[in-house]
Amino acid sequence: MSAGTRLENANPFIFQRSGERLLTASEEDENVIDPIDDREIFDIIRSINDPEHPLSLEELNVVEQMRVKVNDQESTVSVEFTPTIPHCSMATLIGLSIKVKLLRSLPDRFKIDVHITPGTHASEDAVNKQLADKERVAAALENAHLLEVVNQCLSTRPA
Amino acid sequence: MAADSAQLLGLVEEFVSGQADSSAADIATGVKTGQFSILQLVEALGLSLTSSQTQTRGRGVQLLSQVLQECYSGLSESEVKVLVTFYENRLKDHYAMTPHVLHGLTALAKCTVLPPGSAVSILKALFQDVHVQSLMLTERSCVYNILISLMNSREKELKGLGPDFVFGFVQAVDGERDPRNLLLAFQIARNIIYRGYDLNLFTEELFEVTSCYFPIDFTPPPNDPHGITQEDLILALRAVLTGTPRFAEFLVPLLIEKLDSDVQNAKVDSLLTLAACAPVYGHKELAEFLPGLWSSIRREVFQTASERVESAGLSALSAITSCLSRTVLTSDSGDALQTFLELVLKDCQHHLCEPDLKLVWPSAKLLQAASGASYRASLIVTAVVLPALFEQYNSRTQCTHRRTLLEVLQGFIQPTVSSQPAEREENVLLPFQKSLCSVVFSALAESNASLQVTATKVLATLGQQSGLLLETDVEIAVDHLTRLVVEEDDAQVSLAVMDCAGSLARLHPAVFTSRMVPRLKDEIFTEPMAEGDTSTLPQSRSKAAARERSVKALAFISSQLSLVQESAPVLLQVLAAAHKGSSSFSTEEVISVCRSLQRIAEHAQHTVEIGDFFHNVVIPRLLGLSLQAALHSQRCSGHTSPLTEEAVLSAIVPVISTACAALQSVPATQMAAQAVSLFLDGDVSFLPENAYPSQIQLLKSQSDCWSQSQLVCLLMASVCSLSQQVEIPDIDRLLVQLEELIFTCTHPFSYTSAAKCFAGLINKRAAGQALDAVLEKTLKRISATLDCESSAQRVQAFTLLIWVMKALLLRYHPLSVNLTDKLFCLLSDNQLGSQAADSFSLLMSDSPDVLNRSCHANVRIMYRQRFFTENSVKLVQGFNSAEQEKRSVYLKALSHIVNNLPRQVQLSELPALLPLLLEALSCPDEAVQLSTLSCLQPLLMEPPPALTTQLEALFTRLLALTTSPAMKVRITALRCIHALSRLPTHMVLPFRARVLRALAKPLDDKKRLVRKEAVAARSEWFLLGSPGGR
Predict the structure, then answer these.
(1) Which residues of B are less than 8 Å from A11 in CB distance?
(2) What is the mean pLDDT of residues A55-81?
(3) pLDDT tier at A2 (50, 70, 90 boundaries)?
(4) CATH number, residue B984
(5) Would you say residue B634 lies in a domain?
(6) Which of B260, B268, B303, B450 has the most A C-beta neighbours within 10 Å, making it the best mutation to test the interface with A?
(7) Cβ–Cβ of A13/B356 closer than 8 Å?
């Protein structure tokens, strides 16, 4: 982040991070099958970095567990995300990051749907349309510059 | 004599004509041994030095210089004087001569007998006749070395040169590019500044010529033989730039400018340099830049994504504040510190009122850094900030807001070294004492877990500063803590509460004795609800949890003798009650009581009195109770006391051994005598409650009843952990009886404990005939039993073998080699083979209850490495010659050994072992796979070069293991694959596509834990070699 550029939202609200998922006895049992559930999907996307701030999407409340829906049998995932401000120019990028992270982290039987929480962004429809368009997502990832920004959002912060 | 000079002439001739460079060394040795003198050498050189051929003259000077470098220390003052004059003149000679001349001068500059005036004349000649930057690298370094030597020996003369010296240096160094020479140049500059050379006219020039390297950006070439790092250069340059306040007017603007740049390293370096300046500077130097500096620092801390920049910014702010605090107030300028802090407060304070916004933390950190810088600063800052925080805290009702505010508050009350009040100054927090306590108590009363955790931390911080908690406040605090211990279910909270209670109990033991201990005791002894009623099940469970927490809390607070005297009896009472069956304590509860006792026993290391208390009261009571339980269970078979259970006894062992290990020599000797006479002769006189039968023989094995024989573990606890100097009475008889017990007993816990006890005694016994005799007898019996395949006691003999072997291995006893060979033979044994393989893990790891350093065992350093180097070859051979189905035994043994080796050794041994480890990965035994994987995983974090040639094989095996039926194997294999993504990109990039494809499968694993690892690994592999990734 260069010193000259101004942040769009320099002082955003910060939310608490949820703790690590508690380990249950059945998860350690070899013979039990654990279905993929909402929390598991949320755990995958909550640590994605915000493109502007050194904060995770969870800390900015862009993603919430209650806005993640998964159906393991039907192999569908639906994620709603909420930009911090209605005019956030990063919305598409954030959506793309979530989508890419899920594509990389879920078995390919899943149909992944990522969209903006209704009523929280000025150009909601346009962004949703872009994110739903397979061709455009694929094309975006061909663009080295875009891929670089997405990868930066997805890279784990050095401890 | 004539022969000598002829020889010298010959040597000189050889060198000058360019035939043999080695003759220089010969001459040097000659001069050193006194065979030739320097004068003779110069005479012999005569012709070549005056030759009209530049080359010949060059060779002549070169020879002289080389000889001088070897033997400058033996020169006399008059010789030096002549040589200096000669060399100075040679500087005016042809340019090809200059390098040799400089080498000679470097040697002469090191002479201790340099005549007065020479230093100045050398320098004048240098500065006048040499253009340093057009010389080669080594010659430039000669010039710097001459300067350094002369500065060290002739400081006064050089200072006589005045500003000319600085000017000469500035000219010489201007344009230097090599890091090696820069380090020298920075050293000279530092000397100029710190040793008070006259800078006056050339301050700016000296600054210019050094500051042009700021910020340093240097990447050492790979395989750099000189080992200069960027950090070395940065520190050397920083020492120069921050050396004098006279640079301030140039340096501070430069720093502000670099702070505004986009390069992170430049920012960090500028901030750290700023922090390093502040101790040298005063208000005068900084005054005009303060607003600019503050706004730059603020911007960096507010906006940065990097912790390095943030912490550098904070340390810079703190340094500036402490610099301003040192300035003496003058009547006309007003208080600089006050003005600066007002600026800081104005920009940061309002962010503290928005506890859910991002900037609350950076603001708090900035204010804390400023406040921690000095006592005066903390007075000014806390006076403004604390009331505001209290007001915010009281007006906010959301727990998350309150927690943030409390955490911020904690940062402000944390004492720092530099803000410590001086004598006769009072703690800055004293005026806020009441409000602080009321905030903390109100937070402790809330039901929010994280708020409570923070509150306990604040409370502990308050407790550590004198005067902040009044007696009544401590009482209220203890009541709160007691309530939380009893009522609060959340694991995090109760841990925090116990830590806090522990730290307060150290300072106020009396309050805890009177208020917490009785309350916890009540809690422990009140019965859970009536059993059998299902509706109260959760209630009784929570009751049990409260009991457990109370037991734990007793251990946490017992660090002072007065508290131990109160709390340990309560715990012992629990054991007695459990033994009698008068109140219902489960086995787990009894074990946790033992754990608490062990925790308390750990304090005996620091407090002798606690050790004595354990020796006089706790240990006899424990032994007595266990003995009663054992005797009781033998007689009637109604209620069985939990103290006869193996798990409980194993929990009592560490209590006794921890306490015994801390005993001083007198009580320790007494302890040994008491324990031995109890077990050998049934002497119960030192036990409380004299109600034991007269004939007790604890070391005699009874065929069907092991309740007595298993008590041998308590013997082990009390005699094997005493210090090595303590003489164990009757040791021979004891060893004989132990051996007998081992071979006659069939109860595994009993004979294993007896074997451990045997080993513990053997390990500490002084070398000599007595020891050899015992060993010979015992080993004979062991081998006889082992050799007889049908013997019923083979397992017992094997157990004893392993423990004796461990005892001898640790002290490097020569017999351990024989035993190792025996163990190797057993690897191919049908019955004991797999046990033998597992025993390698026992040999190599620390056992918790005996034969470790805390039990004062005789452990020589690096016994593991030694064992490994002596035996790895045998293992590999054994593996190669074994039949297919027995090979896994060798692999298992190997992986046990390698797993326990220190990392450095693992790394150096890996090349030899890698093929075998890879083999182990494809071995079908899951235990071998898992143990090999867990051995590989830490190695992959920092992969050794040997691995890189085996990557193909490694990937094939690891990827295959991701579909193993055992979940733990899948998880560890995925972790290894994750770790491999950190190898240098060019090595692993070829595997990227393959890994990504193979990892798609575990993404759909049936176990969540496996999927989690797969997701983590696959995301990293996606980033590999991709833009923005790695």
Answers:
(1) 351, 354, 357-359
(2) 92
(3) very low
(4) 1.25.10
(5) no
(6) B303
(7) yes
How confident is the model over B938-964, as a mean pLDDT?
85
C-alpha of B887 from chain center: 39
Residue from the list A2, A34, A106 with its beta carbon closest to the beta carbon of B1008: A34
Give the pLDDT of residue B1. Answer: 53
| Beta carbons of A40 and B1008 less than 8 Å apart | yes
Asked if residues B576 and B563 have their Cβ atoms less than 8 Å apart, the reply is no
pLDDT of residue B704: 62
Residue from B347, B997, B1008 whose CB has the most chain A CBs within 10 Å, to mutate: B1008
Please say whether the beta carbons of B920 and B894 come within 8 A.
yes
- The answer to the question of residue A130 being in a domain is yes
Judge: A151–B1011 Cβ closer than 8 Å, yes or no.
Answer: no
Q: Is residue A10 part of a domain?
A: no
pLDDT of B1013 above 90? yes
For residues A78 and A67, give the distance between their C-alpha atoms in angstroms, rounded to a whole number.
8
Mean pLDDT of B378-400: 90
Give CA torsion, residues B432, B436, B439, B443, to 10 deg: 170
ipTM of the shown complex: 0.93
Asked if residue B757 lies in contact with residue B720, where contact means CB atoms within 8 angstroms, the answer is yes
Say if the Cβ atoms of B1009 and A28 lie within 8 Å: yes
* Domain containing residue B338: 242-418
What confidence category does residue B1018 fall into, taking pLDDT thresholds of 50, 70 and 90? very high
Domain CATH code at residue B257: 1.25.40
pLDDT tens string B62-98: 888 998 888 888 888 888 999 999 998 888 888 888 8
Q: How far apart are CA B504 and CA B496, in angstroms?
A: 12
Q: Check if B358 contacts A (Cβ < 8 Å).
A: yes
Please measure the distance between the N-terminal and C-terminal CA atoms of chain B and give it in whole angstroms. Answer: 73
| Cα-to-chain-centroid distance, residue B951 | 31
Please check whether residues B287 and B364 belong to one and the same domain: yes
Q: Render pLDDT for A71-91 as a digit per residue (tens, 0 to 9).
A: 999 999 999 999 988 888 889
Band (B497; pLDDT cuts 50, 70, 90):
very high
- Please give the angle made by the CA atoms of B670, B672 and B673, to the nearest 5 degrees: 65
Count of domains observed in chain B: 4
The C-alpha atoms of residue B583 and residue B252 are separated, in whole angstroms, by 75
Q: Are strands A76-81 and A68-71 parallel, antiparallel or unpaired?
A: antiparallel
Alpha helices in B603-635 (DSSP H): 608-613, 619-635
Residue B804, token pair as written in the block: 């004796």
Verify that B234 and B279 share a domain, yes or no: no
Give the pLDDT band (50/70/90) at residue B528: low
Q: What is the DSSP string of A65-119?
A: GGGEEEETTTTEEEEEE--SSTT-TTHHHHHHHHHHHHHHHS-TT-EEEEEEPTT
